[in-house]
Amino acid sequence: MSIVRFEILTKVIELGSFTKTAKKLNMTQSAVSHAISSLETEWGVPLLIRDRRKGITLTEIGQKTLPHIREVLKRMEAINQEIALATNLETGIIRIGTFSSASSCLLPKLLAKFQKKHPKVEFKFYEGTYEEITEWLQSGIIDIGFVVKGKSNPDFDLVPLLKDKMVVAFHPEHKFLHKETVDMQDIEKEHFIMPTGMYQSHVEELFEEAQIKPSIRFEVHDCTTIANMVQEGLGVTIGPELFLKTQRNIKIRKLNLTYYREVALACSVISEASPAVKEFLMVAKNVFIEPNSTIDSQMSFN
């Protein structure tokens, strides 16, 4: 059946190996190879390029057909979930794209709430940058993704979760400890650790609004490394409260300029999502959104 071959093909692309795919799907390597070959023979076109140095890559026609294959698999998953719901047997897989602070601070609470009610639904997680999550949503690799409003495709359906305030972080013995609010002008005089990762643009916009230039001592990509450097007294930094408040041996304070990044869950089209995905988004809405918050009509689960 082509559906099985579709699943094998997408797994080969995901893992980049026939051997790993065979192990993952509990098949022989020859069976995996035969499934791909038979699909190529049936369609009369090569789908994969097998190169010992570069590994496995898609041909041009393979790149064009893969999104459609993923869409077919998503539709089949939705059909299976509808049948499962009709027979009172909940099942399915939800593929979620997430960034580091969402993984550590938002996902555990959501999963705990969801799995109490739906213990048979499985999850698969992909952690990446704002841009990668957007790309995964567009290509159908994931069903839903944590995004920051203004940093993702405006065509996605969004379920807003929370506003994450940008704060200043510093060593516990720093003079900022005795302040309730830190003025941006005071940060200009400090050795600054500039994030070069996902929230760099947020930090740069804050400095631009304050019309100052930080004294950048280090430029660091990894969030945890930045927190560790602050812990060692190597400088101060600005970042999202959601992440920084979870880090040990550093202190945070609000800034005199208020700046938020708005975290949301994104889905290509909620009305076309699987039952499990719709239910997960509903749980997220109930967990994070205040009762008097409003959601656009496109967010409807009806």
- Find the CATH superfamily of the domain at 163-261: Periplasmic binding protein-like II
Chain oligomer state = single chain
Question: For the terminal residues, how far apart are their CA atoms?
Answer: 33 Å
Strands, total number: 12
Estimate the strand proportion: 15-25%
Radius of gyration: 23 Å
The helicity comes to 40-55%
Structural class: alpha/beta
Instruction: Give the overall shape, derived from the CA principal axes.
Output: elongated
CATH architecture of the domain at 163-261: 3-Layer(aba) Sandwich
Number of helical segments with 4 or more residues:
12
- How would you characterize the largest beta sheet? 8 strands, mixed
Family: Belongs to the LysR transcriptional regulatory family.
Domain HTH lysR-type: 1-59
Protein name: LysR family transcriptional regulator
Keywords: DNA-binding, Transcription, Transcription regulation
